[in-house]
Amino acid sequence: MTFRAERVRRWAMYSHTLLVLAFLLLPLLVIVPVSLTSGNTLIFPTPGVSLRWYEEVVTDPRWVGALWNSLLVGVSSTMLATIMGVLAAIGLAWGSFPGRKLIYAVAAAPLVAPIVIVGVASFSFYATLGLVGNRLSLVLTHAALAVPVVLTTVTASLAGFDRTLMRAAASLGAGHAQAVVRVLLPLIAPGVATGALIAFIISFDEVVVASFLSVAEQRTLPRLIFSGVRESVSPAIAAAAILLIAFSACLLGLVGWIQSRSKRGARL
Amino acid sequence: MTGTAVWTGAPSALRARPFARRFRGWGYAACVAPLVIFLVLTFLWPLGRFLYLAVDNSDIVDNLPRTVAALATWQRADGVPGEDVFGALAQDLADARSRKTDGIVAQLINQRLVGTRYLILKTAKLAEEGAFETAPRAAMLQHFPEWNRVEVWSTIADDSARLTDFYLLSSLDLRRTAEGSVAPAPAGQAVFVQVLLRTIWISVVVTLVCAVVALPVAHAIVAVGPTASRVLIALILFPLWTSLLIRTVIWIILLQANGPVNGGLQFLGIIVEPLDLIYTRTSLYIAMVQVLLPMMILSIVAVMRRTPKDYMKAALSLGAPWFTAWRRVQLPLIMPGILAGCGIVFVFSLGYYITPALIGGPKEQMISSFIAFYTNNTLNWGLAAALSIQLLLLLVLTWCALMLGRGLVARRSAA
């Protein structure tokens, strides 16, 4: 009898898990037919199938301009966050100066601060500098939001780095800079790349700070979707959403590939 | 090993080492410096500066210096002030207008005494044109009889300090009375305590729902084989890689009046008229749980993987009913994971903005929405900053409660 109860429990557990997976994933799929509608509104079931909304997203200057803005802001803030994050991770992991715990805490702050407060505070700050509507302010704030992630991933890969390799390089006649470029960086590259990709996604998906700091011409892709949704939900938004999901999935795949490659390398 | 002993006697090689080491230490500090400077300049300083706006009141003193000085000895009981105060105000307002800061003054005074905005703006306009140069008191009273109200003057006088608790009190639906004591705000203007309680309530519901829904899923992930478990984790992680905005937009598309959910229900003949699914509390809960559930599952799984499975089996073999065994043996073991998950979900919920803004009705807006509203719509920085302080304090309190809970769980399992 307990055996049957056990089976019922297992059955309930697995079907519950399936339902939860459906709840998490199906909504992402259901908007695919919506985006393929030939009609002008998001009515379901759709009157017919067409790619016209994808065509609009790829050709309409508003969408294309927003994509360029997103890429520009994303790449700039990623570069900034990665350079500072890698330097700081090395300094924090190997140096022994006072206040390192405090620095770790400060560097984690952008992760936990409510995003609206970050957005409003940046808006108030850059307004006094006359930089609201300038992409620079958005790049700086996005870099601050992304730095904790870069710091975390690079610190993790530094933990697996054998520091005697640096001394070995020095004993073979390499200067400090040469040892860093030819020994250290290639070995921690997976951590750096992972951090940089996540930093890029953070900036590419961020909408709240962008809604405070950008004006019409500098709208990023999420910002355009946000204001579009507030006015009217056109099928173009569904198409853009699917393209963004596909893009994120590609980057996620890239991160997974880097991670598995670096694990295999470590085993060899 | 004292520094002086090394310095006087040691050979140069021994002396050089600590120096080189210290130098290298500073080299590493120099690596960290750009990040620290960057975060201070672009994050901590803007944040601190903004939060300070909750108590900052220097705009009144800076823009009305003569008036504030002239009102220094004035008491409410003195009634409408004399010629000198009127003259000082006329001059200050004329100056403010020529600096284009009269709007700020009008806005600040209007925040405290509603309905005075145009009084200030119009007085400033006439003052700049020189209407009050001779006999300012009579001229101002003739143009604007509102200056006969003692409250207008006492509002300016009460506001002449550089720091104010007005916004912090307002964010808790309190205000100072004319006598200086703290009293509840009139019922029509009291909204923020309700918003605070609503924010906490929504977060509690979302956290509890996530915990209850996540537990069996976490059990399943640990129970299946390693490959299946990895696939499950990947599937659960996938939505985390889609932005919050996109996932919220998806729910809008799904739940709207002619969206797939209503369409499907109508097609199946379950309903005739489309249901109001969007802009309700339920739609907000659904969307928030979908977004936050993966984090809860992952934190429970992380702890569950470390707990031995034998204890549960031992309890069962000793004859405990399954639920008793789970509650008394398994639950305490995975409690740290549940607590961590609840902490993450609760903290994220408290700061939610995008989802309530897009799929909640007016009765679903949380603190963050009001911070954004007072920034975007009324430029009331003081109130936005005071509400931000409230939200940050809430996060700190949550963190303390979480640490306390963790300590209690650890002590109970040690006992």
Listing every helix as H and every strand as E from the N terminus to the C terminus, the arrangement of chain B reads HHHHHHHHHHEEHHHHHHHHHH
CATH homologous group name of the largest domain in chain B: MetI-like
Radius of gyration of chain A: 23 Å
**Tally of contiguous helical segments of chain A:** 11
CATH class of the largest domain in chain B: Mainly Alpha
SSE topology sketch:
The complex is a heterodimer of chains A (268) and B (415).
Chain A: H1 2-35, H2 52-59, H3 61-94, H4 100-112, H5 115-129, H6 135-159, H7 164-171, H8 176-205, H9 208-213, H10 221-231, H11 235-267
Chain B: H1 3-9, H2 12-52, H3 58-63, H4 65-70, H5 83-98, H6 102-112, H7 117-128, H8 136-143, H9 150-158, H10 166-170, E1 174-176, E2 182-184, H11 192-223, H12 226-237, H13 244-255, H14 260-267, H15 281-306, H16 310-317, H17 322-350, H18 354-359, H19 367-376, H20 381-414
Antiparallel strand pairs in B: 1-2
